[in-house]
Amino acid sequence: MNEAIGPGSGTPPQAQEAPELSVIVPTFNERDNVTVLYRRLEATLANVAWEVVFVDDNSPDGTWDVVRALAQRDNRVRCVRRIGRRGLSGACIEGILASSAPYVAVIDADLQHDETQLPKMLLLLASDQADLVVGSRYIEGYKSEGFNKQRAGASALATELARKALRVEIADPMSGFFMVRRDRFEELAPKLSVHGFKILLDLVASANGSLRAVEIPYTFGERQHGESKLDSMVALDFLGLVLAKFTNDAVSLRFILFAMVGGIGLVVHLTTLFIALQLFKAPFAEAQAAGAVVAMTSNFVLNNFLTYRDQRLKGFALLRGLIAFYIVCSVGLLANVGVAFSVYDQEPIWWLAGMAGALMGVVWNYAMSGLFVWRKK
Questions:
Q1: H helix or E strand, kind and range, residue 26
Q2: Predicted TM-score (pTM) above 0.85
Q3: Are 130 and 122 in contact (CB under 8 A)?
Q4: Given its phi and psi angles, is residue 111 left (phi above 0), alpha (psi -120 to 50 degrees) or beta?
Q5: Which residues, other chains included, contact 231 with Cβ-Cβ below 8 Å and sequence gap of 6+?
Q6: How far is 168 from 162, CA to CA, in rounded Å?
Q7: Cβ pair 26, 108 in contact under 8 A
Q8: Coil, strand or helix at 2
């Protein structure tokens, strides 16, 4: 569900022009930053026909309300308020497709990206020197005022992994600051995942080398307000995107994340099975069932936190979702225990039997979970 916020009547004369540049700003709890960013864009793009589209994931701090106030004064400001879903990549995709200019920039609302580079980026695209211009952290001239060493190291490692695994040529495919020709983006949009955080990596990997890219250095500033949108599960999210692109999108990112969680659940399952058999001397069938229930519970929690973060269940819906997850997995559980017991009966190797049973219900659980547990409303 979207709530589109339109412009007001107080329109500066220059805002009547058709925009040449659309600036897309994904936001979540950035109410203290959006007005500052708007003022900076206004100063930097004084000689450009521009618009800014804030895509807000229904921020609890009312970021969308601040943007609405700006839109009422200046029709270059627009807001798409997304209700019922979250995710940086999805927000960027929706914002770009909702814009109207031939050139589109993506910039964070945290004021760490250098908006003064936008005119230079626009010139490179408008003069047909590139299809994509990236604000890069890994070329000469880049400066950092707000990137801590731990985050920088993790980013560099992820960048190297992405470049080698996906054969991406640009130095900084993990950048969140870039500008692209709208027509090229629309060609690639059907291939992009709405999940995750690394929209540029997805874009470049999906293009398979067909985008002419130029990278420019910029100064990475310090965050002024709010907090980073990157949570502790972004590493798994990133790995899932790499795997999805490595398979040429034959398998969706969502399914890969679900399967990765299932892999963690398998460890939980086998650990519980081992404890039940060795410490409690339980019969194998009961121990296998206990392992399956514990694994299902852990899978539900992790899937709610990672795989379906854009539809994350909270409060009473969390309990209701857990019960629904148990129900939709019941068929898989019956097959799980039946197959495992059959394998164990023929070859009493506990870990082999446990793994055979646990792998039975993956596809069923994924399909039914999307329909009945984390269904879109």
A1: strand 21-27
A2: no
A3: no
A4: left
A5: none
A6: 7
A7: yes
A8: strand
